[in-house]
Here is the input.
Amino acid sequence: EIVLTQSPATLSLSPGERATLSCRASQSVGSSLAWYQQKPGQTPRLLISDASNRAAGIPARFSGSGSGTDFTLTISSLEPEDFAVYYCQQRGNWPLTFGQATRLEIK
Amino acid sequence: QVQLQQSGPGLVKPSETLSLTCTVSGGSISNYYWSWIRQPPGKGLEWIGEIQKSGSTIYNPSLKSRVTISLDTSKNQISLKLSSVTAADTAIYYCARVSRTTGWYFDYWGQGTLVPVSS
Here is the structure.
């Protein structure tokens, strides 16, 4: 099973700042990685697919990069609604696995 | 638009079988793959398994011996059965659509069903 390790576990930033979230895979997943956002009491929302493709309706301030084992989600300038929990998920190998999450909180 | 509506018992006793249904509106289930995912309260996401439009299934090895996912195309429903449950199976259970157009990731989710396992 591929283990996804997200860092940091918690990121404290202020609106307007740049956020950089990391996801590292225990073995290569190629570009088969997605990012999801989950707010309290809500279902996860797909942000990025195949490492760098923004999903429909996702603002341009969200971008993804990386391949192989190292991936990054960047939020260029934080809006108040961006403070949430973020998960990476790989589809390079079965079983599908998720990272343990990064919580993005307001500083 | 696509909507996934989950239904099922809100409480299951230890050793019994958890059964959930996901009814899809706004499109035929035959055109997509479908997964079940769970989230213990306050914790992260765990993929349970996937059913492809052919009806073939792939399960998480950690749950494989206890899980069955099936399609009912006449009702546009996907179902999940998890047998011999214990308290460790207490979680919010989600159904989710897997779409080729989004790279085979989860683009639509059900509302989630909290299933406590308790006597």
